[in-house]
Amino acid sequence: EIAITWTSIAIAIAGIMTALKNELIFIDRLTGLYNRVYLTYLQKEAQKKKSKPFAGIMLDLNGFKQINDNYGHSEGDVALILVADLLRKSFCEYGIVTRYAGDEFVVMLNTTDEQLIRKLIARAKEIFEDENKTNDKPYQLSASMGYAVSDLSKETIDDFMNRIDKLMYQDKQAYYEKNDRRIHK
Three-class SS of residue 149? Predict the structure, then answer.
């Protein structure tokens, strides 16, 4: 008789460790959000379903450089963690929030209803405003956002990402036309 219990336990533990390692490669260590690697995975999955439209939002924090410059990078990290929580509250019911790079985030939505998407963006901006009213930070948090619905039978993922990036920068330009680039509370 050969005892397979310990062998089975070792294989099970190895399987669990592999699964955890695979999951960790998709998680941004600072914010706990999904990362750009996972976003790329989602985009490849969307490309496989070219006939099914999808939507996404690109977000960029307004004045984030001033947070780092004026209060230090550790406070910048605190701000990014807080923003991640605000984005979860705003979008997790309707999509997957990813940290794209630095202070940029992308939300891949599970809806293509543009009226709903505009409501979600408005709600996110309200959540940011409410947080600014209740926290004791010496700076204000806000994000510029651009969204689009894509049909991958008519455009590439890169075209889609460039489009939401351009729309986000249009929102950022409008924000800075109304607000000073320096952050004050």
Answer: strand
105: left (phi over 0), alpha (psi -120 to 50) or beta: beta
Strand partners, 97: 107
**Contact assessment for residue 54 and residue 125, using Cβ atoms and an 8 Å cutoff:** no
- Predicted confidence at residue 127, as pLDDT, reads 97
pLDDT confidence of residue 143: 97
Contacts (Cβ under 8 Å, ≥6 apart) of 80 = 30, 31, 99, 103
Cα Rg of the chain, angstroms: 20
**pLDDT tens for residues 29-40?**
999 999 999 888
pTM: 0.83
DSSP for 69-91, written as a single string: HHH-HHHHHHHHHHHHHHHHHHH
Triad 173, 59, 179: Cα angle to 5° = 35
